[in-house]
């Protein structure tokens, strides 16, 4: 079949095809933006990358073998003087048995064993032995809750973890199927409505690792990003303590005015701010909103200008998301920005 195809496809097209394949392999190998599974930064992704490289080596060897056999078949054809016939049948049978049965068994058996071994080593740590975080997928953002004695810590689109310690992640979904993927730290796992799936993250070194929703989940699937911020142990416990506190009380007149706008304009119906009457749960918890790096699940950097644009018309930036456009006077928007900016 392959032989027939190769014979009927003109050589220049074939050469271009192989060039594209080689270029794609190069791009895959060079991807280096803190989001590459081939530059692992934690034990989970390291185990997956090891398997990936082994698979690539085996597949490349098989590919070269096939190309070499093809070359031999094409260049040696028709040289024989005697007519072909029954005498070739035992040779053909040997080729089929060697190339179709023996060779795949020899190549695939070790790969299967290594794959099963890798899968076993990717099992999540036991409950109680690691820090526990629940991540709930929503269209289109990530609700992040830290478990623990009396913990009410809830944030969005950012998961802080301590370096060198496994973190157990329970994955849930409120609406459709999403997929949780931090390429540099761990393989992907689906968030399925009505079900809890468990994965884990561990980072070898401090840094920011980008994560994505890896399952098409509607209009804004591509704008459903998150970040994993790996901190040294002491910085992590400082962060945890700070985030468990209620929101900073409004200190001056602008902040107080902004808080009043937040409570009276409908924001509080969907967003919670601990320490205030705002208890909505449809949208992200904003208790420490100003400490986050992005807004709208990685869509925009968390700056005053971007936030103003987002509040003024969230549907223009992320069409289809659940945040409605709320008409505000310029002065109301100004004080609201001051208030949100104070929520460190
Ligand atoms: Cu959530 Cu794609």
Task: Characterize the structure shown.
With 344 residues, the protein is an alpha+beta fold. The chain has helices spanning 2-8, 11-30, 43-76, 89-121, 233-244, 253-264, 267-270, 304-312, 314-317, 330-342, and strands spanning 131-138, 141-146, 154-156, 158-162, 167-173, 178-181, 189-191, 197-201, 207-213, 225-231, 294-295, 300-301. The strands form three sheets. Strands 3-2-1-5-8 form a five-stranded mixed β-sheet, with no helix packed on it. A five-stranded mixed β-sheet has the order 4-10-9-6-7. A two-stranded antiparallel sheet has the order 11-12. A hairpin with a 7-residue loop joins strand 6 and strand 7. 26% of the residues are buried. The model is unreliable at 1-6 (pLDDT under 50). The structure holds dinuclear copper ion.
Please outline what is shown here.
The chain has 344 residues and is of the alpha+beta class.
List the strand order in the largest sheet. Answer: 3-2-1-5-8
- Can you write the helix and strand succession as a string? HHHHEEEEEEEEEEHHHEEHHH
Radius of gyration using CA atoms only: 28 Å
**Averaging pLDDT over every residue, what do you get?**
89
Oligomer: single chain
Q: CATH-wise, what's the superfamily of the largest domain?
A: Cupredoxins -  blue copper proteins
- What is the count of structural domains? 3
Secondary-structure-derived class: alpha+beta
The CATH class name of the largest domain reads Mainly Beta
What is the element layout, followed by pairings?
Layout: H1 2-8, H2 11-30, H3 43-76, H4 89-121, E1 131-138, E2 141-146, E3 154-156, E4 158-162, E5 167-173, E6 178-181, E7 189-191, E8 197-201, E9 207-213, E10 225-231, H5 233-244, H6 253-264, H7 267-270, E11 294-295, E12 300-301, H8 304-312, H9 314-317, H10 330-342
Parallel strand pairs: 1-5, 4-10
Antiparallel strand pairs: 1-2, 2-3, 5-8, 6-7, 6-9, 9-10, 11-12
The structure holds dinuclear copper ion.
Dinuclear copper ion is lined by residues 137, 140, 178, 213, 215-217, 221, 224.
